[in-house]
Amino acid sequence: xxxxxxxxxxxxxxxxxxRRLDVDSGTIVHSVLEHLIRVLxxxxxxxxxxxxxxxxxxxxxxxxxxxxxxxxxxxAIKSVIVQYEPRLKDVAVHFRTQQDxxxxxxxxxxxxxxxxxxxxxxxxxxxxxxxxxxxxxx
Length: 138
Hints:
- By secondary structure, the chain is of the alpha+beta class.
- It has helices at 6-15, 25-40, 61-64, 70-84; strands spanning 88-96, 105-113, 120-128, 134-137.
- The chain has a single domain (6-137), classed as Nuclear Transport Factor 2, Chain: A (Roll).
- The chain is built from four helices and four strands, in the order H-H-H-H-E-E-E-E.
- The longest helix is centred in the N-terminal third of the chain and has 16 residues, at 25-40.
- The protein starts with 5 loop residues before the first helix and ends with a strand.
């Protein structure tokens, strides 16, 4: 399995043909992070080639958010990551309570980054703001 997305590998090969497959783990983490930002900010049903790509509409989610919807949101985020980010295994998504911003929802995404046979543990912090924009940091 390749560590970077296809277009990223092509760009790297064009920029430096000698480097071809020599990619460090920081580059892979950045690639995964960028892909998570893209997929989690894509509204499910908005991509013609794959209507399942993305998450349910999160716009104004904080205004209709209840404690009963936590498992549903965790499952939606986990499902899209499992389906569309093969470089992550053993994905777990957990809601994080916060006191500072009541209009944002925070989730912790933990997984194993597939760099070798064992996988490397990694955690991403995810914030869904009141406009439905998703920010992901590692």
